[in-house]
Design a protein that fits this description.
globular; mainly alpha; 75% helix; single chain; disordered C terminus
């Protein structure tokens, strides 16, 4: 009996069930997922190549953009290939350790993405409020330290999730109604006390998401005050235009997150679980898909570099940020 109980405590593997209730539509659902993933991979890799090899883009704003593109590329690659294998080939099984690894990367990378968006808001604040000191404040060492701090923050806060999951006994089966492993989806399979998991999850959400949103809000409040005080309408328009792409990225990143957060807590019984799962996938896939498109269209210097490469021109004078 003791051996049986011990075997049932930790399953060897989990079954990712895709999107429950929509199994007959998995192939059709996979089409936009696959299309968005292809756009994300091609777009992020293309702009990373551009930033790497174009001297005109070796500036602080584009270094932060490179961090955002790298993070988005890894986020989408950590979940979408597995989701597509579920939709297309019914490869639903994932080992217990593989599930923990996927969970760690998903939460760490989403936390880092939020941190990079916060750093980009601070970058816009310095560029608009202190334009003469922009290059002296945001030096390469400062940018490297900021990026490393954001990464380490995510790693150090997410690592405890793996230990909190491993300590739990699992006697409610091993079927996860999701396309990827996330912290609460796995914890809900446990027959143990998950109160610590819930409290720590909320604490991490506040330490990462809450702090980043606060910094973004304060930065844009200061930016708005500085822009409104400009006497020239053209200067105000130019200052606002430098923030347009970043604001779009914020909307793409946080809107699905807010919907998922509030719907789980205030509308969980009225909204189908399939809707929650689709939104959770959009939360991970939409920003990596749209960020390269938005920055490629809205950022003049990137457009100039693309045009120069396509036309074979030798040089286009860099524009000011």
């Amino acid at each position: 009996m003791m051996m049986l109980n011990q075997t049932d405590v930790t399953p060897a593997s989990f079954i990712l069930n895709g999107i429950p209730g929509l199994e007959d539509m998995h192939v059709w659902i996979s089409l936009p997922f696959c299309s968005m993933y292809v756009v994300a991979v091609v777009g992020n890799c293309g702009l990373l190549y551009l930033i790497r090899y174009e001297d005109a883009l070796h500036r602080p704003m584009y270094y932060f953009l490179a961090m955002l593109f790298i993070t988005g590329l890894f986020i989408s690659s950590s979940t979408i290939p597995k989701a597509l294998s579920i939709f297309w080939f019914h490869f639903k099984e994932i080992s217990f350790d593989g599930c923990l690894i996927q969970m760690f990367f998903v939460h760490t990378l989403t936390g880092m993405e939020s941190g990079v968006l916060m750093l980009m808001a601070l970058d816009r604040y310095v560029a608009i409020c202190y334009p003469l000191h922009y290059s002296t404040i945001l030096t390469n060492p400062v940018i490297a330290k900021a990026g490393l701090s954001t990464f380490l923050r995510g790693v150090l806060l997410i690592i405890p999730f793996t230990f909190l999951i491993k300590r739990l006994p699992y006697c409610r089966g091993n079927i996860i109604p999701h396309t990827y492993c996330d912290h609460m989806s796995v914890a809900k399979l446990s027959c143990g006390n998950i109160k610590v998991n819930v409290i720590y999850g909320l604490m991490v959400a506040l330490l990462i998401g809450g702090f980043d949103i606060l910094c973004i809000t304060v930065s844009y409040t200061m930016i708005l005050r500085a822009v409104v005080s400009l006497s020239s309408a053209d200067a105000r328009q130019k200052a606002f235009s430098t923030c347009t792409a970043h604001i779009c990225s914020i909307v793409f990143s946080y809107s699905p997150a807010f919907f998922s957060f509030f719907s789980h807590r205030f509308g969980g019984h009225r909204i189908p679980s399939s809707c929650h799962i689709i939104v959770a996938n959009i939360y991970l896939l939409l920003p990596p898909t749209m960020n390269p498109v938005v920055y490629g269209v809205k950022t003049k210097q990137i457009r100039d570099c693309v045009i120069r490469i396509l036309s074979g021109s030798k040089y286009i004078k860099p524009h000011s940020i």
